[in-house]
Write a structure and sequence with these properties.
This protein is mainly alpha-helical and 101 residues long. The protein is elongated.
């Protein structure tokens, strides 16, 4: 009975970690996407500085900072997410390969 309780506690901890990880990924997706859209429409650095270009009140420099820092954390969290769910992904790939269309 004690062993079963420990296994349940470990499984619950893993589920909580995955939930926190997914929530952080979702929260970081918002500034990375927003800043990515702004940087897509931004002129080159020199023109942006000369014209004081902004995207919804954010300068190109602030968009770059908003994109780079959360983007690196976002990427690291995605890698951890993939590692934690490797078994699921492996089974899905096997299912795709074996399924005839």
């Amino acid at each position: 009975m004690e062993t079963r309780r420990k296994i349940l506690n470990i499984n619950l901890l893993i589920v909580k970690i995955k939930a926190i990880l997914s929530t952080l990924i979702l929260l970081l997706f918002i500034p990375v996407t927003f800043s990515g859209i702004g940087l897509y429409f931004a002129p080159s650095g020199r023109i942006a500085r000369i014209t004081n270009w902004t995207f919804l009140g954010f300068s190109k420099e602030s968009l770059e900072a908003m994109h780079n820092v959360p983007g690196m954390v976002f990427g690291a969290l995605v890698v951890i997410h993939l590692l934690l769910n490797f078994k699921i992904y492996k089974n899905e790939i096997i299912c795709l390969i074996r399924t005839k269309t």
